[in-house]
Fold this protein.
Amino acid sequence: PENICAHHPGVKVVCPATPADAKGLLKSAIRDNDPVMFMENTILYNDKGEVPEGEHLVPIGLADVKRTGTDLTIVAHGRAVLTSLKAAEQLQAEHNISAEVVDLRSIRPLDEEAILKSVRKTHRVLLVEENKPFCGVDAQISYLIQEKAFDDLDAPIKRVSAIDAPQIYAPALEREHQLPSPSRVLKAALEVLR
């Protein structure tokens, strides 16, 4: 659905990973004069987290660095942010690798400056999304990085996405093989850092 919505001019597309961002982005979407697609992952419905009281607005089009780092940039959106944060914790604990995790929060408009700033800092990038790889959001971000920050890269861009296959309906297989998992992200991160 994100790919379809991203091709209609004027439509904004947001996809929160945390309860606080969900509240802030939904309130901003309601107040926006343009149409806004609010993408939410039903798997996140049971997640709990701090949510600011009162008038909490998150600007549409502004990414958020969920974890700062110096060795690798991981760019993600939606539930893939949580997967990426788990992998970043493992990278730090097991390999002493400092990974920065950038949560897009919004696909349209895309916060290009936040992505490029992080890539220019770490010089390596891993893109993580739960979409299929063909024509995914990460394909567009790969293009953006190679067009505007190619000389800043010390390694090729790597992507981790859902596998390009029919949906798996066994929950254990879906978690570990269909969608990005912390172990798949960790493995890809180590490949980027070789």
